[in-house]
Design a protein that fits this description.
By secondary structure, the chain is mainly α. It has six helices and no strands. α2 runs antiparallel to α5 and α3 packs antiparallel against α4. The radius of gyration is 16 Å and the shape is globular.
Length: about 180
């Protein structure tokens, strides 16, 4: 997997976290940006590396199905993000979300997809430290931007961010699938 593809994948993965950061920024009103950024980025990196460990422990006898599995996993995560973006908002952003416990819960919920991507990175033999560093950089940047913009931007942008992230993941899944069948 090329570096640009890895970066696009991580960008798509981070859109859910960006949308959550906008919500937390709306709730925090521009205060307490750094704890939110640290928790969001930490959960994403931790879940990615956990998935990487799972993927690295898969037996080599399954190597023929790895590209197919990675393509399907990424596409499934992307479709899930697009579906989620189309659903009506379940809960409005409330002031309580700026508390650290709520931030941690929301960070965990938005970083579960990172575990799947971690498995895919291990299967595709992307170096773990590079993947973790890219996730920290991209998620840190996007969550900083999201929290900062949160008090100024409405909820409509969260849907657009989730949809864009889902589309990116689906397209990367399709590219992996086309590589597996020898088209690309």
């Amino acid at each position: 997997m090329h570096f640009f593809d890895q970066l696009l994948l991580i960008l798509g993965l981070s859109m859910d976290g960006f949308a959550a950061s906008v919500c937390m920024g709306m709730a925090a009103g521009g205060r307490r940006i750094w704890p939110i950024v640290a928790v969001m980025s930490g959960f994403h990196v931790g879940m990615l590396l956990t998935g990487y460990l799972v993927g690295a422990s898969l037996p080599d006898s399954l190597a023929a199905v790895y590209p197919w599995a990675a393509a399907l996993l990424l596409s499934a995560v992307g479709v899930g993000m697009i579906r989620e973006a189309r659903q009506p908002e379940e809960e409005p952003c409330v002031r309580q979300e700026s508390r650290l416990r709520s931030v941690a819960a929301l960070s965990l919920a938005t970083s579960i997809d990172a575990m799947t991507v971690g498995v895919a990175f291990a299967v595709l033999e992307v170096p773990a430290l590079r993947a973790g560093g890219l996730v920290a950089l991209v998620m840190g940047s996007l969550s900083t931007l999201g929290v900062s913009l949160g008090s100024r931007v409405g909820r409509s942008r969260r849907r657009a961010a989730r949809t864009a992230g889902g589309v990116i993941l689906c397209l990367l899944g399709l590219k992996l699938l086309l590589n597996a069948v020898g088209v690309l």
